[in-house]
# Entry
Amino acid sequence: MLRFILLACLAVCLTACTSSPTPPPTSTHTPSPIPATKTPEPSPTEPVTPTPTLPAIPELDCILPDSPRQTARVIAVIDGDTIDVSIKGLVFRVRYLGIDTPETPDDRFGPEATTRNRELAGGEIVTMIRDPNDEDVDIYGRMLRYIITDDAFVNLQLVREGFAFLYPSGHTCGPEFLQAYDAARADAVGLFAHTPLP
# Structure
């Protein structure tokens, strides 16, 4: 009898061990993508984007050497003192620091200021410089920057040619802007060609 029980147990055990396992149920669930991870900040030993070198334009002497700067492409000229730029695929609106131009077609000299801004900066790769002595953005969220091309300090050039008024500000290039503004008025150029201000 004992022999019969042992043989029965052995048969059950052999059947269980030699049969193929039951496959797991098929799932129709699609796996979720791996969540994106934040790009790590570069370590001190990794190369970083170099600080843009400024062109040899004498008027740039008023810009502080440690002023934060970055390169951008101008993708749209909005008016005489405002542009849209692309930085690493993102678009930002930028207001020229320290100046104010006529902005609408109805404003006297508005279209001319927009056209001159387009000639100076439209489609250009520019260096944008933040003045540490002034605000980073204005009340509308626009970046406030000096704009430098290969051959022009655009903010100052617009003032010098009579396309812009001065905007009250504590920026470091204020004296240079004031000198250019006074010269434009004295020479009766641009906005001041027909009705110079007192």
Q: What stands out?
A: The radius of gyration is 34 Å.
